[in-house]
Amino acid sequence: MTAWMILSICSAAAAVIASMACARPFWHLLQLESYQLPGYRRALQRVGWKEWLPGALLAVANVALLFGLAWGALRTVSIWPVLAALAIVAPAAWVYKRLVKRPAKKELVFTPRLIRLIWATLLVCLLGGAAVCFAHPLLGMLWPLLTPVWVALAAWLVQPLEARVNKWFFQDAQRILRGRPELIRIGITGSYGKTSTKFVLATLLAERYNVLTTPGSFNTPMGLTRVIRERLLPGHQVFIAEMGARHVGDIRELCELVNPVIGLLTSVGPQHLETMGTIERITETKYELIQSLPRDGAAFFGRGNEICERLYHRCPLKEKRLAGERLRAEDVEVGPFGSRFLLVDEKGQRVRCETKLLGVHNIDNLLLCAEVAQHLGLTLDEMSAGINKL
User: What is the pTM of this model?
Assistant: First the structure.
């Protein structure tokens, strides 16, 4: 084997190891962007130079290693494992730990989809790295600089497979729900407040019903699909689905899965303005939930949000309510202990409620959920019991 061949093989190995060593933050960005390449591209522009630094430093280390070998290390090929560990793995781990890793809204989760992406990235690095390195070893040493590109290419290559996998799971979840016509299906969306509102509503309804709600911030098609396929049991009477949206049409797709009969719109604001472009498009996307409801469905809107109140008046459904329309809070006390108030219905009946939740805004969320609970037949005493458990 010639010296050039040995150098090319070592260069290819170094390029692949280095690229995989600094690919983790880019896999994470893709996962946070729901594996959508346009969002991934914007995320790369947003995070700045620190995400690119591991690849740059590893490329520098690889070039230094290449010149060291060319200078005479080829006579001792047996030292390669030590040199590779020192020049590639150790710097990559240090760079990632010190400069790149940072708190994230969601940590990286090694789902089956991510595992497939990792294998695809490895395949891209192996094939591309080998081709480049055998063309010229120096080009291979610079390969880690473009790790974000290789991750994007891997994601693009597996998209057809992922689309087929997702479609099968999605349709299976639809089949499961079609087999449960008696299930009360509730959708919740909003620019903010939807996760907390979901858990408040689930706690209240649990006083009378067996409730399944999506955990954490599970609010994507595949997140809801997974909950339906893995957690929905015959004994569940109510399914509460949080519905997130980063792009126009996202809520419509979720409604095609869940087919909600009750919809809650907590708020409309400038969140996701980057991906949707205008507040009008955000408004229309959120309103997709209300448009998906059947004629005999019920829509509930948060109070204090100008756009929400405008959409309330636009809603054509007979059963629609604003938070606080039929139930109101009187004698409100807010302090370090939480919140206390009297919950009063339209007949003047009242019950005392106390919760550890802080802030007047949480009382508004409680009233929105109480309106839904009343619509589903809960008494004031049942609502009070649920509120006291929050």
Answer: 0.76
